[in-house]
Amino acid sequence: MKKGLWMLLCVISTAALLVSCAGDPASRSQAVSSGSDVETKTETGTRTETGTRTETGTRAETGTRTETETKTEAETRTENGTGAEPITDVENGEEAPTDADSEMLSQISIVSLCIQDTFVKGLAAEFDKENPAYAVSYENLYNSKDRVLAEVMNGSGPDILCLDMMDMINLQEKDALAEMEPFLTKDILENVFSTALELGTLDGKLYGLPAKVLINTLMVSRKVYDGDTWSMADVLETMKAHPEIKWMFKEATGSWWYDLKFLLGDLEHSSFLQDGKAHFDCPEFKELLSLTRERSNASDKRSGNPTDLLRDGDYLGVDVTLLSLNTYGNYLDLGLGEEFSFIGYPSETQSTGYMMPMFGMVAVNQASMDKPGIGELLQYLYSLEKQKTLQLDATCIRRDVLESKVVYNEYTDCYIYDEGGSRGWVLLPGKGKDDFYLEDYLEFVDSTVPYPYQLYYGLMDIIWEDAEDYFESDKNLDDVVESIERRISLYLSENQ
After folding, report:
1. Nearest Cα to Cα of residue 368 among 117, 111, 116, 132
2. 20 to 30 Å CA-CA from 449: which of 16, 43, 51, 229?
3. CATH number at residue 118
4. Does 474 map to a domain?
Protein backbone atom coordinates (compact mmCIF):
# COMPACT_ATOMS: atom_id res chain seq x y z
CA MET A 1 0.00 0.00 0.00
CA LYS A 2 1.51 3.28 -1.07
CA LYS A 3 1.93 6.33 1.11
CA GLY A 4 -0.53 8.25 -1.04
CA LEU A 5 -3.36 5.90 -0.06
CA TRP A 6 -2.71 6.43 3.63
CA MET A 7 -2.58 10.23 3.20
CA LEU A 8 -5.86 10.09 1.22
CA LEU A 9 -7.55 8.04 3.92
CA CYS A 10 -6.36 10.52 6.59
CA VAL A 11 -7.96 13.35 4.61
CA ILE A 12 -11.21 11.35 4.18
CA SER A 13 -11.42 10.67 7.94
CA THR A 14 -11.52 14.39 8.73
CA ALA A 15 -13.21 15.73 5.58
CA ALA A 16 -16.53 16.31 7.37
CA LEU A 17 -14.80 18.60 9.84
CA LEU A 18 -13.23 20.98 7.34
CA VAL A 19 -14.33 24.54 6.72
CA SER A 20 -13.05 26.31 3.66
CA CYS A 21 -12.27 30.00 3.89
CA ALA A 22 -10.71 32.35 1.37
CA GLY A 23 -9.14 35.77 1.51
CA ASP A 24 -6.56 37.57 3.55
CA PRO A 25 -7.85 38.90 6.92
CA ALA A 26 -5.36 41.72 6.95
CA SER A 27 -6.32 45.05 5.43
CA ARG A 28 -3.00 45.65 3.71
CA SER A 29 -2.79 44.95 -0.03
CA GLN A 30 -0.49 42.10 -0.84
CA ALA A 31 0.53 40.19 -3.97
CA VAL A 32 2.33 36.88 -3.76
CA SER A 33 3.80 35.30 -6.86
CA SER A 34 4.94 31.71 -7.32
CA GLY A 35 8.22 30.10 -8.24
CA SER A 36 11.24 32.37 -7.95
CA ASP A 37 9.25 35.61 -7.99
CA VAL A 38 9.63 37.90 -5.00
CA GLU A 39 6.86 38.90 -2.64
CA THR A 40 5.83 42.52 -3.13
CA LYS A 41 3.87 44.60 -0.64
CA THR A 42 2.94 48.26 -0.96
CA GLU A 43 1.13 50.62 1.31
CA THR A 44 0.29 54.15 0.27
CA GLY A 45 -1.75 56.94 1.77
CA THR A 46 -2.81 58.18 5.16
CA ARG A 47 -3.96 55.88 7.94
CA THR A 48 -5.48 57.03 11.24
CA GLU A 49 -5.45 54.62 14.18
CA THR A 50 -6.83 54.59 17.71
CA GLY A 51 -5.22 57.16 19.95
CA THR A 52 -4.54 60.09 17.56
CA ARG A 53 -1.65 58.36 15.78
CA THR A 54 -1.32 59.07 12.06
CA GLU A 55 1.04 57.71 9.48
CA THR A 56 1.53 59.22 6.04
CA GLY A 57 3.77 58.24 3.20
CA THR A 58 4.65 55.52 0.77
CA ARG A 59 6.58 52.34 1.43
CA ALA A 60 7.62 49.68 -1.04
CA GLU A 61 9.08 46.33 -0.20
CA THR A 62 10.52 43.61 -2.44
CA GLY A 63 11.77 40.99 -0.03
CA THR A 64 13.89 43.62 1.80
CA ARG A 65 12.51 47.00 2.88
CA THR A 66 14.06 50.14 1.37
CA GLU A 67 13.23 53.59 2.77
CA THR A 68 14.56 57.09 2.37
CA GLU A 69 14.15 58.12 5.95
CA THR A 70 16.69 57.44 8.68
CA LYS A 71 16.27 54.22 10.68
CA THR A 72 14.56 54.68 13.99
CA GLU A 73 15.99 53.76 17.34
CA ALA A 74 13.50 50.86 17.56
CA GLU A 75 14.74 49.47 14.24
CA THR A 76 18.33 49.74 15.37
CA ARG A 77 17.58 47.83 18.56
CA THR A 78 15.79 45.14 16.56
CA GLU A 79 18.64 44.69 14.09
CA ASN A 80 21.13 44.48 16.95
CA GLY A 81 19.11 41.66 18.49
CA THR A 82 18.21 43.62 21.62
CA GLY A 83 14.49 43.86 20.87
CA ALA A 84 12.26 46.90 20.95
CA GLU A 85 10.23 48.50 23.70
CA PRO A 86 6.44 48.08 23.58
CA ILE A 87 4.66 50.73 21.54
CA THR A 88 1.72 52.49 23.20
CA ASP A 89 -0.70 55.17 22.05
CA VAL A 90 -1.00 58.51 23.77
CA GLU A 91 -4.50 59.80 24.38
CA ASN A 92 -6.48 62.48 26.20
CA GLY A 93 -4.63 65.48 24.81
CA GLU A 94 -1.13 64.25 25.60
CA GLU A 95 1.70 64.51 23.15
CA ALA A 96 1.15 62.35 20.06
CA PRO A 97 3.61 59.54 19.33
CA THR A 98 6.56 60.25 17.11
CA ASP A 99 7.34 58.35 13.90
CA ALA A 100 9.90 56.32 15.86
CA ASP A 101 7.23 55.17 18.31
CA SER A 102 4.86 53.96 15.59
CA GLU A 103 7.44 52.25 13.36
CA MET A 104 6.60 48.65 12.45
CA LEU A 105 9.09 46.20 13.94
CA SER A 106 8.60 43.22 11.64
CA GLN A 107 6.38 41.45 9.16
CA ILE A 108 5.43 37.87 10.07
CA SER A 109 4.16 35.44 7.46
CA ILE A 110 2.11 32.35 8.34
CA VAL A 111 1.62 29.74 5.63
CA SER A 112 -0.52 26.62 5.91
CA LEU A 113 0.60 23.60 3.90
CA CYS A 114 -2.31 21.45 5.01
CA ILE A 115 -6.07 21.80 4.94
CA GLN A 116 -7.39 25.26 5.71
CA ASP A 117 -7.77 26.10 9.39
CA THR A 118 -9.98 29.06 10.22
CA PHE A 119 -8.97 28.92 13.90
CA VAL A 120 -5.30 29.79 13.33
CA LYS A 121 -6.23 32.12 10.48
CA GLY A 122 -8.69 34.02 12.64
CA LEU A 123 -6.30 34.42 15.57
CA ALA A 124 -3.54 35.60 13.23
CA ALA A 125 -5.88 38.33 11.99
CA GLU A 126 -6.76 39.34 15.56
CA PHE A 127 -3.09 39.53 16.56
CA ASP A 128 -2.36 41.66 13.50
CA LYS A 129 -5.16 44.06 14.42
CA GLU A 130 -4.22 44.32 18.10
CA ASN A 131 -0.46 44.67 17.56
CA PRO A 132 0.37 47.46 15.08
CA ALA A 133 4.10 46.88 15.63
CA TYR A 134 3.77 43.62 13.67
CA ALA A 135 2.18 42.98 10.29
CA VAL A 136 0.91 39.39 10.17
CA SER A 137 -0.24 37.65 7.00
CA TYR A 138 -1.83 34.21 6.60
CA GLU A 139 -2.01 32.20 3.40
CA ASN A 140 -2.87 28.63 2.46
CA LEU A 141 -0.38 27.27 -0.08
CA TYR A 142 -1.28 23.60 0.06
CA ASN A 143 -1.18 23.39 -3.73
CA SER A 144 2.36 24.82 -3.69
CA LYS A 145 3.59 22.63 -0.83
CA ASP A 146 6.71 21.28 -2.56
CA ARG A 147 7.92 24.76 -3.50
CA VAL A 148 7.41 26.15 0.00
CA LEU A 149 9.10 23.16 1.67
CA ALA A 150 12.08 23.56 -0.65
CA GLU A 151 12.33 27.24 0.28
CA VAL A 152 12.33 26.43 3.98
CA MET A 153 14.99 23.75 3.51
CA ASN A 154 17.12 26.32 1.67
CA GLY A 155 16.92 28.89 4.46
CA SER A 156 14.04 31.09 3.27
CA GLY A 157 10.26 30.73 3.14
CA PRO A 158 7.52 31.79 5.59
CA ASP A 159 8.20 32.49 9.26
CA ILE A 160 5.56 30.20 10.75
CA LEU A 161 4.12 27.09 9.12
CA CYS A 162 1.11 24.83 9.62
CA LEU A 163 2.46 21.43 8.58
CA ASP A 164 1.39 17.84 8.20
CA MET A 165 3.23 15.64 10.70
CA MET A 166 5.52 14.00 8.17
CA ASP A 167 6.45 17.36 6.63
CA MET A 168 7.34 18.61 10.10
CA ILE A 169 9.44 15.51 10.73
CA ASN A 170 11.25 15.86 7.40
CA LEU A 171 12.01 19.56 7.96
CA GLN A 172 13.33 18.84 11.45
CA GLU A 173 15.64 16.18 10.05
CA LYS A 174 17.02 18.84 7.69
CA ASP A 175 17.58 21.26 10.63
CA ALA A 176 15.09 23.65 9.03
CA LEU A 177 12.88 24.19 12.11
CA ALA A 178 13.55 26.20 15.26
CA GLU A 179 13.04 24.77 18.72
CA MET A 180 9.67 25.95 19.91
CA GLU A 181 9.94 25.78 23.69
CA PRO A 182 11.88 29.08 24.09
CA PHE A 183 8.95 30.93 22.48
CA LEU A 184 6.36 29.58 24.93
CA THR A 185 5.61 30.62 28.50
CA LYS A 186 5.72 28.37 31.54
CA ASP A 187 1.95 28.69 31.84
CA ILE A 188 1.46 27.27 28.33
CA LEU A 189 3.88 24.39 28.78
CA GLU A 190 2.35 23.38 32.12
CA ASN A 191 -1.26 23.40 30.90
CA VAL A 192 -0.94 21.77 27.48
CA PHE A 193 -1.78 18.05 27.50
CA SER A 194 1.44 16.04 27.65
CA THR A 195 0.43 14.01 24.58
CA ALA A 196 0.04 17.22 22.56
CA LEU A 197 3.60 18.16 23.52
CA GLU A 198 4.78 14.67 22.58
CA LEU A 199 3.25 15.06 19.12
CA GLY A 200 5.72 17.84 18.35
CA THR A 201 8.71 16.44 20.23
CA LEU A 202 11.49 15.02 18.05
CA ASP A 203 14.85 13.88 19.39
CA GLY A 204 13.85 15.16 22.82
CA LYS A 205 13.10 18.74 21.70
CA LEU A 206 9.83 20.53 20.90
CA TYR A 207 9.55 21.56 17.23
CA GLY A 208 5.82 21.85 16.75
CA LEU A 209 2.49 22.12 18.52
CA PRO A 210 -1.06 21.53 17.25
CA ALA A 211 -3.60 24.30 17.59
CA LYS A 212 -6.28 21.68 18.29
CA VAL A 213 -6.56 17.90 18.22
CA LEU A 214 -8.92 14.95 17.89
CA ILE A 215 -8.71 11.48 19.39
CA ASN A 216 -9.28 8.12 17.69
CA THR A 217 -10.04 4.99 19.69
CA LEU A 218 -11.75 1.60 19.47
CA MET A 219 -15.02 0.89 21.26
CA VAL A 220 -15.89 -2.66 22.34
CA SER A 221 -18.72 -4.39 24.15
CA ARG A 222 -17.90 -5.37 27.72
CA LYS A 223 -19.83 -8.61 27.13
CA VAL A 224 -17.10 -9.64 24.69
CA TYR A 225 -14.04 -8.12 26.37
CA ASP A 226 -14.20 -6.49 29.79
CA GLY A 227 -10.64 -5.25 30.23
CA ASP A 228 -9.57 -1.60 30.29
CA THR A 229 -6.90 -2.07 27.60
CA TRP A 230 -5.76 -4.95 25.41
CA SER A 231 -2.75 -6.24 23.55
CA MET A 232 -2.50 -7.72 20.07
CA ALA A 233 -2.46 -11.21 21.61
CA ASP A 234 -5.67 -10.37 23.56
CA VAL A 235 -7.42 -9.45 20.30
CA LEU A 236 -6.46 -12.67 18.57
CA GLU A 237 -7.47 -14.80 21.55
CA THR A 238 -10.82 -12.98 21.84
CA MET A 239 -11.57 -13.53 18.16
CA LYS A 240 -10.84 -17.26 18.46
CA ALA A 241 -12.98 -17.48 21.63
CA HIS A 242 -15.97 -15.84 19.89
CA PRO A 243 -16.58 -17.56 16.55
CA GLU A 244 -20.02 -15.89 16.42
CA ILE A 245 -18.30 -12.53 15.79
CA LYS A 246 -18.12 -12.26 12.02
CA TRP A 247 -15.64 -9.44 11.54
CA MET A 248 -12.79 -7.84 13.40
CA PHE A 249 -13.16 -4.03 13.28
CA LYS A 250 -15.63 -1.60 11.74
CA GLU A 251 -14.40 1.67 10.26
CA ALA A 252 -14.99 3.70 7.10
CA THR A 253 -14.15 0.96 4.57
CA GLY A 254 -14.07 -2.36 6.42
CA SER A 255 -10.73 -3.02 4.76
CA TRP A 256 -8.09 -5.51 5.90
CA TRP A 257 -5.74 -2.56 5.56
CA TYR A 258 -7.35 -0.91 8.60
CA ASP A 259 -7.47 -4.15 10.55
CA LEU A 260 -3.71 -4.51 10.20
CA LYS A 261 -3.26 -0.87 11.11
CA PHE A 262 -5.20 -1.36 14.34
CA LEU A 263 -3.48 -4.63 15.22
CA LEU A 264 0.08 -3.40 14.54
CA GLY A 265 -0.19 0.20 15.70
CA ASP A 266 2.15 -0.55 18.62
CA LEU A 267 4.52 -2.54 16.43
CA GLU A 268 7.64 -1.01 17.94
CA HIS A 269 6.82 -2.61 21.31
CA SER A 270 5.73 -5.96 19.87
CA SER A 271 7.61 -9.27 19.74
CA PHE A 272 8.01 -8.79 16.00
CA LEU A 273 10.63 -6.07 16.61
CA GLN A 274 13.24 -6.79 19.25
CA ASP A 275 16.62 -5.12 19.74
CA GLY A 276 16.39 -3.37 16.39
CA LYS A 277 15.87 -6.63 14.49
CA ALA A 278 12.90 -8.10 12.60
CA HIS A 279 11.15 -11.25 13.86
CA PHE A 280 8.15 -11.54 11.54
CA ASP A 281 8.89 -15.00 10.19
CA CYS A 282 7.15 -16.75 13.08
CA PRO A 283 3.87 -18.63 13.74
CA GLU A 284 2.32 -15.68 15.64
CA PHE A 285 2.63 -13.25 12.73
CA LYS A 286 1.36 -15.82 10.24
CA GLU A 287 -1.66 -16.44 12.47
CA LEU A 288 -2.30 -12.69 12.63
CA LEU A 289 -2.36 -12.39 8.84
CA SER A 290 -4.46 -15.52 8.40
CA LEU A 291 -7.08 -14.47 10.97
CA THR A 292 -7.21 -10.93 9.56
CA ARG A 293 -7.96 -12.22 6.06
CA GLU A 294 -10.63 -14.53 7.44
CA ARG A 295 -12.36 -11.87 9.60
CA SER A 296 -12.06 -8.69 7.53
CA ASN A 297 -15.10 -7.40 5.68
CA ALA A 298 -15.02 -4.77 2.96
CA SER A 299 -18.57 -5.46 1.74
CA ASP A 300 -20.43 -4.20 4.83
CA LYS A 301 -21.19 -0.49 4.29
CA ARG A 302 -23.55 -0.04 7.23
CA SER A 303 -23.34 3.21 9.14
CA GLY A 304 -24.86 4.38 12.38
CA ASN A 305 -24.05 4.48 16.07
CA PRO A 306 -21.09 2.27 17.01
CA THR A 307 -23.14 0.98 19.92
CA ASP A 308 -25.81 -0.37 17.54
CA LEU A 309 -23.16 -2.13 15.44
CA LEU A 310 -21.66 -3.71 18.57
CA ARG A 311 -25.06 -4.79 19.91
CA ASP A 312 -25.69 -6.60 16.64
CA GLY A 313 -22.72 -8.78 17.54
CA ASP A 314 -21.11 -8.75 14.10
CA TYR A 315 -17.98 -6.77 15.08
CA LEU A 316 -15.35 -7.11 17.76
CA GLY A 317 -14.69 -3.35 17.81
CA VAL A 318 -15.74 -0.11 16.13
CA ASP A 319 -13.40 2.77 15.28
CA VAL A 320 -14.54 6.01 16.96
CA THR A 321 -13.43 9.62 16.52
CA LEU A 322 -13.79 11.84 19.59
CA LEU A 323 -13.85 15.52 18.78
CA SER A 324 -14.54 16.96 22.20
CA LEU A 325 -16.03 16.62 25.67
CA ASN A 326 -19.43 16.91 24.02
CA THR A 327 -18.80 13.77 21.92
CA TYR A 328 -17.61 11.91 24.99
CA GLY A 329 -20.82 12.80 26.81
CA ASN A 330 -22.95 11.58 23.89
CA TYR A 331 -21.29 8.17 24.09
CA LEU A 332 -21.96 8.04 27.83
CA ASP A 333 -25.64 8.45 27.02
CA LEU A 334 -25.34 5.53 24.58
CA GLY A 335 -23.95 3.19 27.22
CA LEU A 336 -20.25 3.98 27.48
CA GLY A 337 -18.88 2.80 30.81
CA GLU A 338 -21.52 0.26 31.68
CA GLU A 339 -22.13 -1.63 28.45
CA PHE A 340 -19.22 -0.42 26.31
CA SER A 341 -15.68 0.85 26.78
CA PHE A 342 -13.16 2.95 24.89
CA ILE A 343 -10.53 0.27 25.06
CA GLY A 344 -8.24 1.79 22.45
CA TYR A 345 -6.04 0.09 19.90
CA PRO A 346 -4.08 -3.05 20.80
CA SER A 347 -0.98 -1.89 22.65
CA GLU A 348 1.75 -3.02 24.97
CA THR A 349 1.83 0.48 26.53
CA GLN A 350 -1.76 0.48 27.85
CA SER A 351 -2.96 3.51 25.88
CA THR A 352 -6.64 4.17 25.24
CA GLY A 353 -6.34 5.96 21.91
CA TYR A 354 -4.35 8.05 19.46
CA MET A 355 -4.16 11.85 19.60
CA MET A 356 -3.94 13.50 16.18
CA PRO A 357 -3.53 17.16 15.19
CA MET A 358 -6.38 18.79 13.34
CA PHE A 359 -5.13 20.87 10.40
CA GLY A 360 -1.48 20.20 11.09
CA MET A 361 1.26 21.29 13.45
CA VAL A 362 2.38 24.87 14.03
CA ALA A 363 6.16 25.22 13.62
CA VAL A 364 8.74 28.00 13.30
CA ASN A 365 11.16 28.36 10.41
CA GLN A 366 14.75 28.13 11.66
CA ALA A 367 15.60 31.16 9.49
CA SER A 368 13.04 33.22 11.45
CA MET A 369 13.90 32.22 15.01
CA ASP A 370 15.28 35.68 15.85
CA LYS A 371 12.57 37.72 14.16
CA PRO A 372 10.74 40.08 16.55
CA GLY A 373 7.15 39.12 17.27
CA ILE A 374 7.39 35.34 16.74
CA GLY A 375 7.25 34.60 20.45
CA GLU A 376 4.49 37.13 21.06
CA LEU A 377 2.36 35.64 18.29
CA LEU A 378 2.78 32.05 19.51
CA GLN A 379 2.03 33.05 23.10
CA TYR A 380 -1.09 34.81 21.83
CA LEU A 381 -2.22 31.73 19.89
CA TYR A 382 -1.75 29.32 22.82
CA SER A 383 -2.87 31.63 25.62
CA LEU A 384 -5.78 30.55 27.80
CA GLU A 385 -7.83 33.52 26.64
CA LYS A 386 -7.53 32.67 22.94
CA GLN A 387 -7.72 28.90 23.32
CA LYS A 388 -11.03 29.45 25.13
CA THR A 389 -12.49 30.72 21.84
CA LEU A 390 -12.23 27.21 20.36
CA GLN A 391 -15.66 25.74 19.69
CA LEU A 392 -16.69 22.21 20.62
CA ASP A 393 -15.73 20.86 17.17
CA ALA A 394 -12.29 19.77 18.40
CA THR A 395 -10.31 19.06 21.55
CA CYS A 396 -8.38 22.02 22.92
CA ILE A 397 -4.77 21.20 23.79
CA ARG A 398 -5.00 23.12 27.09
CA ARG A 399 -6.67 21.19 29.89
CA ASP A 400 -7.48 24.39 31.82
CA VAL A 401 -9.78 25.55 29.02
CA LEU A 402 -12.33 22.88 29.91
CA GLU A 403 -11.81 23.42 33.62
CA SER A 404 -12.64 27.12 33.21
CA LYS A 405 -15.48 26.95 30.65
CA VAL A 406 -17.61 24.08 31.96
CA VAL A 407 -20.12 25.22 34.61
CA TYR A 408 -23.15 23.73 36.31
CA ASN A 409 -26.60 25.16 35.51
CA GLU A 410 -29.08 24.70 38.35
CA TYR A 411 -32.11 25.33 36.16
CA THR A 412 -31.34 22.48 33.76
CA ASP A 413 -29.52 20.33 36.37
CA CYS A 414 -26.68 19.69 33.97
CA TYR A 415 -23.39 21.18 32.87
CA ILE A 416 -22.96 23.65 30.04
CA TYR A 417 -19.99 24.80 27.98
CA ASP A 418 -19.48 28.48 27.29
CA GLU A 419 -18.39 28.87 23.66
CA GLY A 420 -17.97 32.59 24.21
CA GLY A 421 -19.12 35.68 22.38
CA SER A 422 -22.28 35.44 20.31
CA ARG A 423 -22.08 31.63 20.11
CA GLY A 424 -23.57 31.27 23.59
CA TRP A 425 -23.78 28.07 25.61
CA VAL A 426 -23.74 24.40 24.68
CA LEU A 427 -25.78 22.02 26.81
CA LEU A 428 -23.54 19.04 27.62
CA PRO A 429 -25.12 15.57 27.51
CA GLY A 430 -26.15 13.51 30.52
CA LYS A 431 -25.27 13.48 34.21
CA GLY A 432 -26.31 15.89 36.94
CA LYS A 433 -24.37 18.03 39.38
CA ASP A 434 -22.96 15.22 41.50
CA ASP A 435 -22.15 12.81 38.69
CA PHE A 436 -20.29 14.67 35.96
CA TYR A 437 -17.65 13.22 33.64
CA LEU A 438 -15.16 16.06 33.13
CA GLU A 439 -12.47 14.40 35.25
CA ASP A 440 -13.07 11.07 33.49
CA TYR A 441 -12.65 12.78 30.13
CA LEU A 442 -9.44 14.56 31.17
CA GLU A 443 -8.09 11.25 32.45
CA PHE A 444 -9.00 9.63 29.14
CA VAL A 445 -7.15 12.34 27.16
CA ASP A 446 -4.13 11.98 29.46
CA SER A 447 -3.99 8.26 28.64
CA THR A 448 -3.71 8.75 24.88
CA VAL A 449 -0.48 8.49 22.91
CA PRO A 450 0.65 10.34 19.77
CA TYR A 451 -0.51 8.84 16.52
CA PRO A 452 2.46 6.76 15.20
CA TYR A 453 3.04 8.66 11.95
CA GLN A 454 6.64 7.56 11.48
CA LEU A 455 5.67 3.92 11.89
CA TYR A 456 2.96 4.12 9.24
CA TYR A 457 5.24 5.87 6.76
CA GLY A 458 8.00 3.33 7.20
CA LEU A 459 7.57 -0.19 8.48
CA MET A 460 3.82 -0.43 7.92
CA ASP A 461 4.22 0.61 4.29
CA ILE A 462 6.30 -2.50 3.74
CA ILE A 463 3.81 -4.75 5.53
CA TRP A 464 0.84 -3.31 3.64
CA GLU A 465 2.57 -3.64 0.27
CA ASP A 466 3.50 -7.30 0.74
CA ALA A 467 0.31 -8.25 2.58
CA GLU A 468 -1.75 -6.98 -0.35
CA ASP A 469 -0.48 -9.91 -2.41
CA TYR A 470 -1.82 -12.24 0.26
CA PHE A 471 -5.18 -10.52 0.84
CA GLU A 472 -5.98 -9.64 -2.77
CA SER A 473 -4.53 -12.69 -4.54
CA ASP A 474 -3.53 -16.28 -3.90
CA LYS A 475 0.10 -15.67 -3.05
CA ASN A 476 1.46 -18.15 -0.53
CA LEU A 477 1.46 -16.93 3.10
CA ASP A 478 4.97 -18.23 3.77
CA ASP A 479 6.34 -16.34 0.77
CA VAL A 480 4.62 -13.13 1.87
CA VAL A 481 5.99 -13.38 5.43
CA GLU A 482 9.48 -14.18 4.14
CA SER A 483 9.40 -11.07 1.94
CA ILE A 484 8.21 -8.89 4.85
CA GLU A 485 10.98 -10.22 7.07
CA ARG A 486 13.65 -9.56 4.45
CA ARG A 487 12.49 -6.06 3.50
CA ILE A 488 12.01 -4.87 7.09
CA SER A 489 15.43 -6.23 8.07
CA LEU A 490 16.94 -4.19 5.24
CA TYR A 491 14.93 -1.11 6.26
CA LEU A 492 16.10 -1.36 9.87
CA SER A 493 19.75 -1.74 8.86
CA GLU A 494 19.54 1.31 6.59
CA ASN A 495 17.81 3.53 9.17
CA GLN A 496 19.70 2.74 12.36
Report:
1. 111
2. 16
3. 3.40.190.10
4. yes
